[in-house]
Amino acid sequence: MHTLSAHGAGRAECGNKGAMHVVIATHGHCFDGLASAALFTRLFESLNGSGHRLVYRACGYGTGQLRPDAAVLEGEENAILDYRFFASPKLSWYFDHHQTAFGSDEDRQAFEERRPLGRFFFDSSYSSCTKLIRDVAESQFQVDTSKLNELVDWADRIDSARFDSADQAISRTEPMLRLATVIEHFGDDSFLTRMVPELLTKPIMDVASAHEIDEKYRPLGQKHERFVQRVRDKGQRMGRVVFVDLTEGVLESVGKFVTYALYPESTYSVIVGLLKSGAKISVGYNPWCGQPREHDISQICARYGGGGHPVVGGIAFDRREVERAREVARHIAEELA
Fold first, then answer.
1. How far apart are CA 297 and CA 265, in angstroms?
2. Complete DSSP assignment for 251-303
3. What's the pTM?
4. Counting CB atoms within 10 angstroms of each CB, which of 18, 36, 96, 277 has the fewest?
5. Span 187-205, pLDDT tens digits
């Protein structure tokens, strides 16, 4: 049983009271971020009626990626989902589950001050933001989301890496995992805008098996295989850690669980890679290793401006900071080792 951070939340009066401009800023290029946008849309329209102008904005932490700042939150109603808190007086709704949701004590205080309004929710015990929104919708607002249960289950499974094995996690024979790969590569504003109505009106397996998704995935599958080979070539064992430096060339694709499939006895993984937007460090705990996790990865990443969860986190760097990213990545690997 989760304890939801809400006070005074009640079901709002339904019905369209005039079309509103609504900005939904969610974690972009992320299955949980997209699914969160779909669940929030169901909640919002159940409370306020349909016919509003909903604008979806894909936010990220990398250099040059969109942040939900004052320029983005320009709607009459504004929501931030599955992303770090931004203390704006124009923020109407907030949902997140990351331990690093608050960048400062001031942000946390601003959240606590707004929480009694009944629209600001944070609970780091949740394994996905989608599930948090579903539970809030049903328990606080009595909104029926049962038709989206399969979407919620998949978002929770993917975001928490709840697979039977690392091999299953990197397999792309499952349509839902192909959809997740497509979202990671193409999940920008326009993709979110097209996909949210699809997720709200069609069975999730129909969406995952659609021709558009299949066409987008085909070249990604080949890139995924090349990524696996690069990890195989560059991976280094550092005690219980697998360290992989992939900064010699821009990455076409990134696979979250490849190190665990190739090095099943490893406890932790540290990958530093070069993306088009800049360098990025990905740190993770191998949930299939059979060894206890002794570190909070989100707090380690937060020291360097990143964040995440206790079991997985990331840090983004500018393209001019590749050497710094390498240095930080190796330092983290040594600490975990």
1. 19
2. -S---TTHHHHH-TT-SEEEEEEEETTEEEEEEEE-TTSSS---S-HHHHHHT
3. 0.81
4. 18
5. 999 999 999 999 999 999 9
